[in-house]
Write a structure and sequence with these properties.
Two copies of one chain form a homodimer. The first copy, chain A, is α/β, with parallel strands linked by helices. The first copy, chain A, folds into two domains: about 300 residues, Rossmann fold (3-Layer(aba) Sandwich); about 160 residues, Succinyl-CoA synthetase domains (Rossmann fold, 3-Layer(aba) Sandwich). The first copy, chain A, has 16 helices and 20 strands. Chain A has a seven-stranded mixed beta sheet with strand order 3-4-2-1-5-6-7, with helices on both faces. In chain A, a hairpin with a 2-residue loop joins β3 and β4. In chain A, α12 packs antiparallel against α13. Chain A is elongated and about 80 Å long. Chain A starts with a helix and ends with a helix. At the A-B interface, α8, α11, β16 and α15 of A face α6, α9, α12, β16 and α16 of B.
């Protein structure tokens, strides 16, 4: 069964008759969109896509296609895409799987540039579905049209208000510089509470069954996307290892790529097989490939979200020497454990810095510096301690612990006043007895470009990942020098 | 320096002149409390303790002791504990470290049963402090009085309203069956938002420098505490390995003990040394000791909180065969990865169960069962799927994924209606696009005894830990049988 699928993959490659259109911009910046298929009243379908697009302020043309309707809610419905008065950049197909191959053909005849097949019932559902998927791929290969999916919730572009998810979306995602891609609808705005994470997104892409557009195509596209600073991906399998390595190696020189890959165990690899009809592959092969390509591998979806945001907000450090500001001895030890395990070292503070800390209070001397020992005297001298640590030549990055009982405004004002050197990222662990206070500090920080965390491990791991990227970039430079 | 401290430990043992009072109940159920020392207006100190006790409804006698005051806020202040009109069960000392030895002596003369030394400035602050700590220990050994601390925020008992933290506490912690202990004030109600976690507590204890009362004493006490079902601990070092093993082995037969131990790296072990003046020790020795003692070791404070609550709410399973209800293929694979890594196996559903699932919808067949594939048709048939999985003889425990867009009431009603077999724990991963919906589902579940998680890994690891405890208990039984 597994080998058979791989064969399908090879077969697909041999079908390549026309050069692919390598510009994916029609998936993210279409001037017009056609929604083809399901228009029934449901919490899922074409009408939901229409509503989402209108809600998010997408300003391009939107057309509805379904032969069974003349209009819905006063909006004209066309029987076929070929009858549309306008050239269509992007078609979103929500029809039954068996109808999809002929709809795709119609799209190619109309000159559509990109197709998102939302429908499921393809390779993930056995041989009949796989056959339909092959038909679609044949058309794509023959005509050069690009296809995302099937079995996908499609794309999001926060700049243009494009959102193709067929599920309702509660809130608009904040515009930012993180591109998020995955082989699952989990990363759609219906799946994750990006807005509440303080997460700021440039683009989202769900590959679905990735019959055509895959993670490599997207990495290539995002490499040149000025709105994207960091690329975060969940991928379950890579079809073309050699091309992946080539492309990723080139892109990681200029933008960090973080990847979470489920399917580490043979049991889960089997589960993924039935999910997108693709092979998950061997854990060690992937780990080694990611390492070679300069990709930062993380261990969970949550880690992917949490580590990526540090790259989004903060500068890349020059080295791996960590300063820790803690409120408890245990917190300092917990941070140190994760730091060492993440490839960081504890910074040895300079004599000057320790003198500065001593002057504030003798118990502050050293790294970790424990402001909790003087907490009984009032609000700890965060400003002075952060400034002293951050401006030490021996400190490359800083973890700062914040107590949730102190008002958010105090922290924000303090942080804004501090003279922050370039290239020194800082992350924050916020803890305390009440969620309200913690939440407020969390959001104020995030909204002002400071990555906040509710557990100390993530706050440290984020800095570890940034230092890993420093090494990746250095390796690239050293490599060039020796060439 | 390290060796010297160990010597101090040995020396202390030789000082044991009078049998210790092994009953720690005066630390948790004192009929009267004396607060000795600092009464200044501050966000930290004796007046804060007084307010906390009154806020939480502690109904025993409360006395203030400080020679510089006659009264504060209309409350009489006594110059010395010896002058009090009543026998005192528990003294809470907040005085300067150098005054503490003589205050402790006064307490012994008054017949106080237990002392919490909140003050810092002892072994954690070098040789002068260590000397003061030794004086205190000598008195304790000579008289049999028990001492918690120094450098501690003390204890909490949610049943009696006892709370000795010198920091303000926002909200009352819910009463429950989890005992939480640590060598750090982080676990005090000022440090963690227990209430917001849905966390229900019986007792909290911070050992501080543990000059006398230590984790072993507490485990012995909690073993017989009818209000405690599960014991969660952060410990940084163990003083008496042999006794620890003896006691823990005995207690884990009847109650699960979960431990998080920071200080895994030599760098963090050094940090801990300066924090409580105790040695953190070798990672592998501890791991092996915990395993021998039947203790469940976890890797972070967050994991300690999240895994413990499953033990608090749910029954211990009979085996390690996991059923998974997912909404996405990727979620199923992510859960499977963590399950296998946590010692679980994927349950092979019985023919009957698969037939039941097939009748609901063919795409539901198998484990993981993916209700997401029919999400387009409306709210997934959670009731039927959970009931079918949970009542399968091949399923020992269940992970269920909940979509945050579905109203909390729907889930709660569904769960309450389901016929749940005994001994089959269930955990929930709640995800979705908006925090409000997620939070509501989370709290409704937790308030009704269903452990909810915001990441799938924790939801699975909790079940893995419960199955680990099943094995620990089985080992004990098998051991008996062969003896």
């Amino acid at each position: 069964m597994g080998d058979e699928k791989v064969m399908v993959g090879r077969e697909e490659k041999n079908l390549k008759l026309k050069d692919k259109n390598n510009d994916l911009s029609s998936f993210f910046k279409p001037e017009s969109v056609a929604i083809i298929g399901s228009l029934s009243q449901s919490w899922f379908g074409g009408l939901v896509i229409l509503n989402n697009l209108l809600d998010w302020g997408y300003s391009g043309g939107i057309y509805l296609i379904n032969p069974s309707y003349d209009e819905v809610h006063g909006v004209k419905v066309y029987p076929n895409i070929k009858g549309l008065p306008e050239i269509i950049d992007l078609a979103i197909i929500m029809a039954a799987a068996r109808q999809v191959p002929s709809i795709v053909k119609d799209c190619t005849e109309k000159g559509v540039k990109a197709i998102i097949i939302v429908s499921d019932g393809f390779a993930e559902r056995g041989e009949n579905g796989a056959k339909l998927q092959r038909e679609v791929v044949e058309t794509a290969r023959r005509t050069g049209i690009r296809i995302l999916g099937p079995n996908t919730v499609g794309t999001v572009n926060t700049t243009t208000g494009l959102v193709t998810s067929p599920y309702p979306i509660g809130s608009k995602i904040k515009r930012g510089n993180i591109a998020f891609a995955a082989q699952t609808g989990l990363i759609s705005p219906t799946g994750l509470n990006y807005g509440d994470f303080g997460y700021k997104i440039s683009k989202i892409c769900d590959f679905g069954n990735k019959c055509d557009v895959d993670e490599i195509d997207l990495i290539e596209y995002l490499a040149d996307d000025p709105e994207t600073k960091v690329i975060a991906m969940e991928i379950e399998g890579i079809r073309d290892g050699r091309r992946f390595l080539d492309v990723a190696r080139r892109v990681t020189k200029k933008k960090p790529i973080l990847i979470f890959k489920p399917g580490r165990t043979k049991e889960s690899a089997r589960a993924l097989m039935s999910h997108t009809g693709s092979l998950a592959g061997d854990k060690k092969i992937y780990e080694s490939a990611f390492k070679q390509a300069g990709i930062i591998q993380v261990n969970s979806l949550r880690e992917l979200l949490e580590i990526t945001k540090a790259f989004s907000y903060q500068p890349i450090p020059k080295g791996n020497r960590l300063g820790i500001i803690t409120i408890t001895g245990a917190g300092g030890a917990m941070a140190t454990d994760v730091a060492i395990e993440s490839g960081l070292v504890l910074a040895k503070l300079s004599v000057e810095t320790n003198e500065k800390l001593y002057e504030i209070h003798p118990s502050l001397v050293g790294n970790p510096s424990d402001v909790g020992q003087i907490a009984g005297m009032g609000i700890p001298p965060y400003r002075e301690v952060i400034e002293a640590m951050l401006n030490d030549v021996n400190v490359d990055c800083l973890l700062c612990t914040l107590q949730g009982m102190i008002p958010a405004e105090y922290y924000l004002q303090t942080l804004n006043e501090i003279k922050k050197p370039e290239n020194k990222p800082i992350t924050f662990w916020v803890f305390g007895p009440g969620s309200d206070g913690i939440d407020q500090i969390y959001f104020e920080l995030e909204n002002n470009g400071y990555p906040a965390y509710l557990d100390i491990e993530s706050a440290v791991r984020a800095l570890g990942a940034m230092c890993q990227y420093t090494k990746i970039q250095r390796r690239v430079k050293d490599g060039r020098r020796t060439q």
